[in-house]
Amino acid sequence: MNILKNLGFGANNKPAPSMEGSSIAQGPDDDVPAPGQQFAQFGAGCFWGVELAFQRVPGVTKTEVGYSQGFVHNPSYEDVCTGSTNHNEVVRVQYDPKECSFDTLLDVFWARHDPTTLNRQVGS
Q: Which DSSP string do the residues of 69-99 spell out, in sequence order?
């Protein structure tokens, strides 16, 4: 059985890397939304479809995709897709609350995302 584990078969028993002493920022972003705007951030397993849905919402003025949490500083898309960095794909939405409520953003999010699907990916 040790031979199989050495070849990468079987359970992954590697301990999660410690975040202690990490150079990765542990606090929130220090930028601010444009005057009269607000930020909201959503994680949905995959950001592409969710970002497009938010871009179509009246009152949304900007979207950005990126990664939240994780153990690797400045990971690539390929790094995150391995599943070994512990990152979540997220979409940050800048919106005008006079034109678009946070509840509207939540409705868009839940219409695109079903957390019970495989890998919590965006549904069709």
A: E-SSSS--HHHHHTT-S-EEEEEEEEE-TTT
Which tens digit of pLDDT belongs to each residue from 9-62? 444 444 445 545 444 455 566 789 999 999 999 987 777 788 999 999 999 999
Element (H, E) at 52: helix 47-55
Distance CA 109, CA 116 (A): 14
Q: What is the pTM of this model?
A: 0.67
How large is the greatest C-alpha to C-alpha distance in the chain, in angstroms? 62
Exposure on the CB side of residue 53, measured as CA atoms within 13 A: 21
Q: Is the separation of the CB atoms in 107 and 50 below 8 Å?
A: no
**Hey, which residues are catalytic here?**
46
CA angle 9, 14, 20 (to 5 degrees): 160
| List of domains in the chain | 35-124 (3.30.1060.10)
* DSSP structural state of residue 34: P
